[in-house]
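DATA SHEET
Item: assembly model
Revision: 1
Owner: S.N.
Input lines:
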Amino acid sequence: MSFITDPLTYSFFQRALIAALLVGVLCPVLGTYVVLRGMAFLGDALAHIILPGVVIAFLTGIPLVIGALVMGVLTAFGIGALSERSLLREDSAIGVIFAGAFALGIAMLSATDGYAVDLTHFLFGNLLGVSAADLWTMLGLSVVVFGVIVLFYKELLVVSFDQTLARTLRLPVRFYDYLLLVLIAITIVVALNAVGISLMLAMIVTPAAAASFLTKQLRPMMLIGAAIGAFSGAVGLYASFYLNIASGPAVVLVATAIFVLIFLFAPEQGVIYRWIGPAPAIRPNA
Amino acid sequence: MAQITATVSKNKEDIYGAEHLPDASLFDAADVTVSYGAQDALRNLSFTLKKGEQVAVVGPNGAGKSTLFKLIVGELAPTSGRATLHGSDPAEHLCVAYVPQRQSVDWNFPVTVEDVVMMGRTAKIGLFRWARQHDRDIVQQSLERVNATHLAKKQIGELSGGQQQRVFIARALAQEAELLLLDEPLAGLDLPSQEQVFEVLDNVTDSGITAIVATHDLNMAARRFDKILLLNGRLIALGRPEEVLTADNLVVAYGGHLHAQDGILIADSCCDH
């Protein structure tokens, strides 16, 4: 057991582990909505688009969260405005803003000292560098996201499942769509330290997608996704520590490996089950 | 007395939608035109719907059936003219429910039958609140009324086509809707399933709920509905099947795309795009 407990004697490792678990739980819960609503591309874009906001905050010393949120909200409205007037298809509108904003962020960062190191951290995360202050911010933001999901659970469910129903129930559909985007933006900030911008999508989508092979109910899907995310976070962190690989990619690789296993071996939904069929003993007509 | 009733319903307005004016008909369209840009989807429509009616809406593709539905649920406002539900703007009411076409629903979505029916309660439960026993009872009763109690715990993807349709009708009942809009509810169903859906519909309209059903199937409409609304951009006819489905009216609605064979009408509108 000492290979598990030994690293825990380092306080930086303790902080990293808490951060990894937090991100591992939060991302898939929110990611369940992203997966069910087919928003993966938008989620990835949003992660990249907030870079200039984060860089400006970083350079001027304001909390990164503020920069990311301002950018995230501006983007949400920008994409809405571009696609709503049918000037562009939504995915093209997202693509244009995505690449432009990302380039702007990198350009701003490249004008500073320590460009390469900072950029690497933004892009791929740095779990082992999480400070106590970072951790408190991450915890606070996670509580906000979970709280909003709990408070608006039934409304978010209706809006995600059937927008026509939502409108006949006179729910403010646009409000909930934007609320979800804001929640994604906050989640991205929480996960920034752990997996970085470029691998963000993996934490949001992969565990939730894996969970969708195991259950056909929303809450269990969130719980299983969170379990997969937390497990990936912890195992990835240890792998990063012992194998001396970057922490973000290590976490994502564990999550991806779990996804592949579930994709292949899940009962009923898995590829192999579908290929072979149910076991003969439980086939009613056999 | 009328004063008191008005006050009571006004107090409940936030939960129950706009006030129902006692003298107003269920739905009333007065010279309604709906345009998308320069194009009129519906032109100068005037008609009234009454409590407990079963009305089939028929017409060729592009006749404005879905625009009409959006108008009735309040998703679209008339470009000119006036549409009212219980005397006021449909968009303010909770008493209208829409049962979507089966292919427009994501059947893989991780919800059970019970969850879907409970969604109909969302507005009545209210923000920041959870379902109470009263809501669970209503969900239970709604499932009973469509003979789907045994399906409550199933994921929606496991249902047959007819069961799917009945579950969405149960959702509309849980919504306590007085006006039900069904979009092609019988498309792709086998005859026994169609029959079950009709049984449920008859039961529902007998209890005073109005059902409006969009359909392509003229023969079925003629056979099963007491009232037919024939649409082609404008209202061509509304009334009993034998009044509405006359050769003259059908030619006006469908042009050359209609064939009568041995007393059976075939509209090939499904295939002209």
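QC remark: Chain A has a mean pLDDT of 90.
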